[in-house]
Design brief:
The protein has 245 residues and is an alpha/beta fold. It has helices spanning 17-40, 43-56, 72-80, 93-103, 144-154, 172-193, 199-209, 214-222, and strands spanning 62-66, 85-90, 112-116, 129-135, 155-166, 226-233, 238-244. It is globular.
Length: 245
């Protein structure tokens, strides 16, 4: 079991991890987009483009965006692949409310539908989508292996998986600076800006404990995927994983 599966958002809370994650994202939904921009100095937009580029290479007609949050991945995919039908799924109704509100003002969002659900058991039909995307969600799973098995199940044969996840740099200087930033400044910003300051302490804890690089591709391949690969960005602070069913 990856260490991150044992790390919960709220210490001392007896609820299952998925319930804690749902509550956390409901609480931080109002500040989520702003905090993402601020914490990454806008680099999240660059990383998102890399995810969209990788997905678009498969020319998918149907896409499922898991842990869709406030919909940024779904909207970026809709801009890039306007013919695609996109389903955005998330545990948190608070995040989905934000996504739906944003979609109402976007003319290119007509092909997107949002639904509440569990990424580990989506209820979507087997082999029903050409691509599965997920950004910054895998480390929140209570069972990462089960999450990848569900992604494999809903993908059609030959379908593409694209996973964007935060990671820790490995080089000495970037690693030291990253550790200082994530363990001091991010929690401080969370306390000042968020309705749930614990969320931004959980963030660096979950990144540090999550499977990364070769460990993550091993989990992806164990679920049945082939040709699992990874690319790192910004000194290793973010990693894109791709694979094919």
């Amino acid at each position: 079991m990856p260490k991150v599966e044992k790390i919960n958002p709220y210490h001392g809370d007896s609820r299952a991890k998925n319930e804690q994650v749902r509550s956390m994202f409901d609480a931080i939904a109002p500040a989520y987009d702003f905090m993402n921009r601020a914490m990454t100095f806008g680099l999240d937009r660059l990383w998102l483009r890399r995810l969209v580029d990788a997905t678009a290479q498969a020319s998918p007609a149907r896409i499922v965006d898991l842990a869709t949050g406030t919909g940024d991945v779904a909207f970026a995919l809709a801009r890039r692949i306007p013919s695609a039908r996109i389903t955005g799924l998330d545990l948190s109704e608070g995040m989905l409310d934000k996504a739906r509100a944003k979609a109402a003002g976007l003319p290119y969002a007509s092909g997107i539908s949002f639904m509440q659900g569990d990424c580990l058991a989506t209820t979507l039909p087997e082999s029903s989508t050409d691509a599965v995307t997920i950004a910054y969600g895998v480390r929140n799973f209570a069972d990462i292996a089960a999450g990848y098995r569900e992604m494999y199940r809903i993908l059609r044969p030959g379908g593409k998986l694209c996973v964007l996840e935060l990671s820790a740099p490995t080089a000495a200087l970037p690693k030291a600076l990253y550790k200082l930033y994530t363990r001091t400044l991010i929690p401080l910003a969370g306390r000042l800006m968020s309705h749930d300051p614990r969320a931004y302490s959980y963030l660096p804890e979950s990144i540090a404990a999550a499977p990364q690089r070769h460990d993550m591709t091993a989990l992806i391949e164990a679920a049945g995927f082939r040709d699992a690969r990874f690319r790192t960005f910004t000194f290793g602070a973010c990693t894109l994983y791709t694979a094919v069913k």
